[in-house]
Amino acid sequence: MNYAMIRFVLARTFQLMAVLLLLPLLVALVYAEYNRMLIFAGLSAFFFVVGYLGAFKKPENRLFFAREGFLMTALIWITISLLGALPFRISGEIPHYVDAVFETVSGFTTTGASILSDVEVLSKSTMFWRCFTHWIGGMGVLVFMLAILPLAGGSTMHLMRAESPGPSVGKFLPRVRGTARVLYLIYISFTVTEIVLLLITGLNLYEASTLTFSTVGTGGFSITNDGINPYPLASQIVIIVFMIICGINFSVYYFFVTKKPKEALKSEEMRWYLVILFGVATMIAIMLYRANITATPGESFHHALFASSSIMTTTGFATLDFNLWPQLSRTLLFMLTLLGACAGSTGGGFKVSRLIICVRRIKNELIFSTHRKSVRQVYMDGHRVESTTVKSVMTYVSIYAFIYVLSFVLISVDGFDFETNCTAVAATLNNVGPGLGMVGATGNYGAYSVFSKIILSLDMLAGRLELIPLMILFRPKSWRGD
Amino acid sequence: MQIIIVGCGAVGTTIIDQLSKEDHNITVIDLDAESLKDVVDSYDVMGIVGNGASYTTMKEAGIEEADLMIAVTQDDELNLLSCLIAKKAGNCNTIARVRNPVYKQEVGYIKEELGLSMVINPEEAAAQEAVRLLKFPSARKVETFARSRVEMVTIQIEEGSILTGKTLQQLQKELKSQVLFCVVSRGSEVIIPDGSFVPQVHDEITLIGRSKHMISLFRKMKLPTSRVHSTIIIGGGSVSFYLIEQLIALGVDVRVFEKNKERCKELSNILPEALFINASGTDRDMLMEEGLADAESFVALTNIDEENIMLSLFAKSMSKAKRIIMLHHARYGDLVDTLDVGSIIDTREITAEKIVQFVRGVSNSLDSNIEALYAINEGKAEVLEFLIREGAPVLDIPLAEMDLKKGVLIAVVLRGNEVVHPRGDTTIHVGDRVIVVTTISGMGDIRDILNKR
User: Fold this and answer.
1) Are B25 and A178 in contact (CB < 8 Å)?
2) CATH topology (fold) of B2-120
3) Would you call A171 and B25 a contact, using CB atoms and an 8 Å cutoff?
4) Do A174 and B27 count as a contact with CB atoms less than 8 A apart?
5) Which of B100, B101, B99, B98 is nearest to B271 (CA)?
6) How far is CA B51 from the centre of its chain?
7) What pTM did the predictor assign?
8) Residue range B140-156: average pLDDT?
9) Fold of B360-449
10) Pairing between strand B253-257 and B189-191?
11) pLDDT digits (tens, 9 = 90+) for B26-62
């Protein structure tokens, strides 16, 4: 076990946080919130000093393996959540530390579940930090560190694999660092484009940037109590487009940029993702129109598509309160909550590619039942899926179900209704944000007890890190040995 | 550089290990997903499962942007085909491993017609190494630099050697030798010695100097300097074939032990000058009968590493012969080095070293300026040849004033046809070739030898 390397990377995380806090500091400066400025500046300086001291002695042995990779990833995410919560707590805007941590975890994991009933009272800089956590967590803290820090060596792939979502994480460039840089380059260009487009549709720079952070990170924190409804139609369309874009595997864009559109279009996951998304949106639109919730077919489709893409990409923005929609629409949205976006995107959830692998595996199993000696393998994108990957997907399903049921039972202690609890776990474990019932689009998680909030925070982390790293962190044996 | 490597067996992995340290973008193609996964887990490279000779796979690996393609699968024809496809699709440099002796006569033709940059035959390369050692029997390892004008020779200090018990400074004065003591391996430790270093028995010392100085130093140390005249070879594999062929050309008396009668017949047909004995190398009486006690050299080339080691130890107990063994697999850490088995040749290591040398040459024309590289003691130390260009930070500074990193030694400066032995007041000029010995791995530029300011 390479403890020195873990310490070193954690110290670097402190320093990274110090740098990231400079952005809300700037916002505080612009809006003359001097009290907040002091908090951000103080914390930034403190984190930097701690990080500097921690990283002072460089580890002699930089070699580490999968075990350290998973542990580092889990520890880094817990660290940034605990540190990122401090501005909320110190400024007094979220008086309880556990609430602040819940809000921060929700931010970094791009969940967008909130304990605040009134978000409009937050100061500009705190609100900015709240949305900015989405942006940081979207593409991943470690991927960012891999892109900028000289952590060379074969070991770095263990970190990337532990943080990136999807059943099989590959590189599209030979080196981890190159891949990480390309990912961030694409991510940043999406961010800049969306900010510019939102400015054109008439939003101010503050609204445009905060909403963009929440969109491209597929997070879902909004800056008004009414979600996205107050903004013009054009802005809402921009947000829909970028939610959908950021729910697609980023390697698709890499292939587009490198002029290999054929490779890009080969992605079965992307095609199924779009088919499911538009299929569900159309069904919901028809139901909304027939139930007279919306006036025109165009308006129905707009709201239906907004809700579907918001839920499927695990963003969690809302225009209308879908809690009040017809029962089948609600059920369909809940199904999208469970499914989630594509692997390798900023979205969370179970991932479309896992569904594809599962369905094909089941099909093979059925054929095997009737043809005892048949030999069949699972294919995706024209390639054979390794049997270890198929196995890991099956394991994922079991762990997912197990964590789901366990959390559901644990938070039911608080005594809320079945629908609320059931969707609360689904919405946090899949990093969506809003569920149904009390935690619906207009509700919040504030009513839950401290214990339930901790459980749900862990669910969010488990969902973002794809279950395994967190499980390994809590397995005592992982810490033992050499 | 963008490099594609087809095949991640033993040689492939050794090449990846070396090249991934040197800032290259490497993509590996192999049919076996399992072994590919091992490589991708341990090195920062991209793996693609597929047939290296397939155009689609090559394209997926980015052959269009590649600078170099190295084909080192088990299969000669697959390697050649991969090179052909890579050449047509990407117009890059290509290297193929071709080991079938049938192609030996045709290497030149194949290289020319298929546009290959390099064809490497591991067995032949290993045989060449063995020949070099037999020409210089006191040495454990021999390499040459700068068109053979400078030699790098590794020797082991034996009991009663005049090198022990004195500091290098004293030795240099006493022996009046121009040869530089540049690396010492003691157990598993590798040291770059300074003037106050005292050599001990069993140390392995690497010397660098001109051939004639080397010979005069060996005479002073009372070590044999002439090549061997007779040899016993155990095993009649392909390395043996190449070795026998070259030794016969040198006029050495060769006796070969080979268990398989058919193989004996086959070899004696092609190489009638050698004496083939149809017996196992472990047949002690037969060995004695064929004159092991008086043999000047003994080469164990069977396919079993353990057998080679034991044979060498047996030969040591029976004669004063110069011993060479071949190892294929694990080195058991440094354990083998403690056994005094003589010189070791390792086809995998030799192949990888030759390819890495070539890669450095190619990347030299692109961005780095390393001309050649040799690894000492499995890469714990490296000997590098740099070409000095305009603007290098070492120009016109006397060596004594240069702020060298710890573990760096400037061994020789080659200026035109002149070999300069560096002293405190030596300065380096544009166009010089500088040979640097270092324990720091992954240097890419002459500026890496200096401490950063």
Assistant:
1) yes
2) Rossmann fold (3.40.50)
3) no
4) yes
5) B101
6) 30
7) 0.79
8) 79
9) Alpha-Beta Plaits (3.30.70)
10) unpaired
11) 999 999 888 888 888 888 888 888 898 888 888 888 8
